[in-house]
Amino acid sequence: MYNLPKFLENINSRNIPFQGQYRFDEPMADHTSFKTGGPAGLWIRPEGDCFPEYAALLLESARNEGIPVFILGGGANILVSDMGIEGIVLDTTGYCVPQKQFPGSNGILRFKAGMSADFAAEYAAGHGFSGLEFLAGMPGSVGGALWMNARCYDREVADVVTEVQVLENGVFKVYSVKKEDFSYKKSPFQAWDCLILSGSFILQERDPVQIKKEMETFRKDREAKGHYRLPSAGSVFKNTRAFVKPVGVIIDELRLKGLSIGDAQIAPWHGNIIVNRGKARTKEILSLIELLENRVKMELGLVLEREVIFIGK
Question: What is the pLDDT of residue 101?
Answer without folding.
Answer: 57
